[in-house]
Amino acid sequence: MTHILIVEDEPEIRKMVCFALKNASYETSEAENSEQALRLLVDKRPDLIIVDWMLPDISGIKLIRKIRQREIHQQTPIIMLTARSEEEDKVSGLDAGADDYMTKPVSIRELLARIKALLRRSQGYENILTIDRLQLNETAHTLHIEQQLVNIGYTEFNLLKFFMSHPNRVYSRSQLLDLVWGENVFLEERTVDVHVLRLRKILKTYDADKMIQTVRSIGYRFSADLTNK
Q1: What's the CATH class of domain 128-222?
Q2: Which strand (E) or helix (H) includes residue 82?
């Protein structure tokens, strides 16, 4: 089911949008501020995000910039939904990384139409990473090894995607926390070890676990060249 994240601090508007989206058979999650939204993005990747400009902690503009800094969310469609209707505001929103800009009061029918249009456009984009026997489809969020579909968790998928996007380079645990989990997420470095262990367990079934190499006293490296240790 298509999942949409609504970031809106006004409860009445948030509930109205959620109600309309659920009636249209979308799955929804809600955030009333940027901090909450960034936490939700760690747990689940939405198919589309709706962001208000005026949020209580940081502005929607700054939130969108933070979202776009995360590689996994660079292609996620974002709609700004705000009371600010000046032309320069629209330009600022679009320049920050929003794909569409709507002003309040919003027409639910128009909002649903724009959501459908953005989803159609994004679903036409398919990004596939292939290294050796591994094929990772970012758009479909699937992993195939030797043409077999592999069951993989959300965080392990994101970690593998980063590794496959940056092969043959060594990253420390703190770097991986910032680049995979996000700079505003405060977790212990041991978290990286736990998820690397889970990812290796998934790959071990296909004798591919050795692609994730431990570099002593530094961190981890992903490489299909098993002589590179």
Answers
A1: mainly alpha
A2: strand 78-82
State how beta strands 128-131 and 134-137 pair. antiparallel
Per-domain boundaries in the chain: 3-123, 128-222
Rounded distance between C-alpha atoms, residue 115 and residue 21, angstroms: 10
Whole-model pTM: value is 0.60
CA distance 214 to 216: 6
Mean pLDDT by 10 residues, the chain (229 residues): 92 94 93 93 87 94 92 87 90 93 92 91 73 87 90 92 93 92 79 95 94 94 76
Superfamily of domain 3-123: Response regulator (3.40.50.2300)
In 3D, which of 164, 167, 142, 166 has the Cα closest to residue 154? 142
Would you call 200 helix, strand, or coil by DSSP?
helix
